[in-house]
Amino acid sequence: MLGKICIKPVVTASAQMTVDQAARAMRTKNVGALVVVNAGRPVGMLTDRDVAVEVVAKGMDPETVRVGDVMGKKPVTIREELGVLDAAKVFAKTGVRRLPVVTRSGVLVGIIAMDDLIMLLGNEMGHMAGALSAGLRRAS
What we know:
Blueprint: H1 2-5, E1 12-13, H2 19-29, E2 33-38, E3 41-47, H3 48-56, H4 67-70, E4 72-73, E5 78-79, H5 84-94, E6 98-102, E7 108-113, H6 114-139
Parallel strand pairs: 1-2, 5-6
Antiparallel strand pairs: 2-3, 3-4, 6-7
């Protein structure tokens, strides 16, 4: 269940915030992306790459540009009751690196990153290998 393993609370932004405010929030919270919400529901994502490529590289002023003008719209989300395999499939199919985790009604409850999922699966594989190895030693 992703709702139990996702990162909470999520660092969020509003579409009306300036990119400067959003970038400062990313730095303060040490995250590379913000989920843009409206009434608790994800409406976009703003990544550090969006800030660099869509604002800074274009010579725009981060103090005047609004998050809603440069965010990725229609974020790919995943429901909290789904599992790790479901998340892996969504990551593979869509190419996104972060998935906001939502309730059945679309309210944001957490976020899971592809890197988090890879670490989790790696740890599980290690535990499974250890258990199998111990079982083989006992059997011989």
